[in-house]
Write a structure and sequence with these properties.
This protein has about 300 residues and is an alpha+beta fold. It is built from eight helices and eleven strands. It has helices at about 50-55, 60-70, 105-110, 115-135, 195-210, 240-245, 260-265, 290, and strands at about 5, 10-20, 25-30, 35-40, 80-85, 90-95, 100, 135-140, 145-150, 155, 165. The two termini are about 35 Å apart.
């Protein structure tokens, strides 16, 4: 997709924002409303056959279906439109543009993240995922790169492209290494909210320490494999450490029973309403919504 392209007579492509394994992301201007939006587009056709190019759009079709189904879930970007572009009818989706930084870039700027900030990020994600699970889906790709931190400290969760229905088996083994639980690679495993609980636990460790659980192993972990065979070297308050280790248990049955239970454990660790920001608070500051009483998510 070229800059300057006008989609559906309304969305003018301004600049490229990034790309993933299956699509490119652009910033466009909604000529009707005068605001910027995000456009996720299928890669331009190169040497593949027409049939192969059409088939390559199926993941976007599935993502559009899921985004539409989750349109009422707070914290998930809203779909604004969709269509086809160019001579070969590449697929695109128009979504709400989320301003801010990915949590991955925020971590790289501020690691080790203070415990209160890490707890605030994961608590906000629990609120969002409660809505996703309530719609009958598991996100399956909660990670630092798929989480946005807005300038006011509120969190948004991106990329529902590989989400799956609770209670179904997963034939799609994609996911972010280090964040995806072992059962995500098992064709016989039934999808459950504990998949996302594992990812949230991994994110806690990623924010506060230098490594992810089970990193450096030569093969998949089993029930006896410790999350950190050489010990976890970062400082983490003991209640939070114990919770995070339970969240990344190899056996899903040993994890907290869903994000509501995780949030119940985290609430006492959250900043109090009207409390002052830490002198070392980051910008953006994910504790701000809790300190200032902003709606979450």
């Amino acid at each position: 997709m070229l800059t300057g392209t006008l989609l559906d007579g309304r969305y003018r492509v301004l600049r490229k924002l990034g790309h993933g394994g299956e699509a490119e992301i652009f910033v466009a201007r909604d000529e009707n409303l005068g605001c910027e939006v995000a456009v996720k587009s299928q890669f331009s056709r190169t040497f593949e056959s027409t049939t192969a190019y059409v088939s390559a759009a199926f993941p976007m079709e599935e993502e559009l279906e899921r985004l539409t189904f989750m349109r009422h879930v707070p914290g998930i970007p809203r779909v604004l439109g969709d269509g086809h572009y160019g001579q070969y009818q590449g697929r695109y989706i128009v979504m709400e543009l989320i301003e801010g930084d990915t949590v991955a870039s925020w971590i790289s700027d501020h690691q080790p993240v203070a415990a209160a900030a890490a707890v605030s990020v994961v608590s906000q994600l629990c609120e969002i995922l409660g809505g996703v699970h309530g719609e009958g889906y598991v996100h399956r790709d909660v990670s630092a790169k798929n989480t946005m931190l807005q300038p006011d400290g509120r969190v948004r969760l991106l990329d529902v492209g590989i989400s799956g229905k609770i209670g179904e088996t997963s034939e799609n083994h994609r996911g972010t290494p280090g964040y995806a639980p072992p059962e995500q690679y098992d064709r016989t495993a039934v999808l459950a909210p504990q998949v996302d609980v594992f990812s949230l636990g991994a994110l806690l460790f990623a924010m506060i320490g230098p490594e992810l659980p089970y990193s450096g192993l030569e093969g998949p972990p089993d029930a006896t494999t410790p999350a950190f065979p050489n010990g976890y070297r970062a400082e983490m308050p003991e209640p939070l450490r114990s919770l995070a280790l339970a969240m990344v248990s190899v056996d899903p049955r040993e994890r907290p029973n869903g994000v509501a239970e995780v949030l119940r454990y985290l609430r006492p660790m959250l900043p109090e309403l009207d409390s002052l920001a830490s002198p070392k608070a980051t910008r953006p500051d994910p504790t701000a919504p809790y300190r200032l009483g902003l709606s979450v998510p």
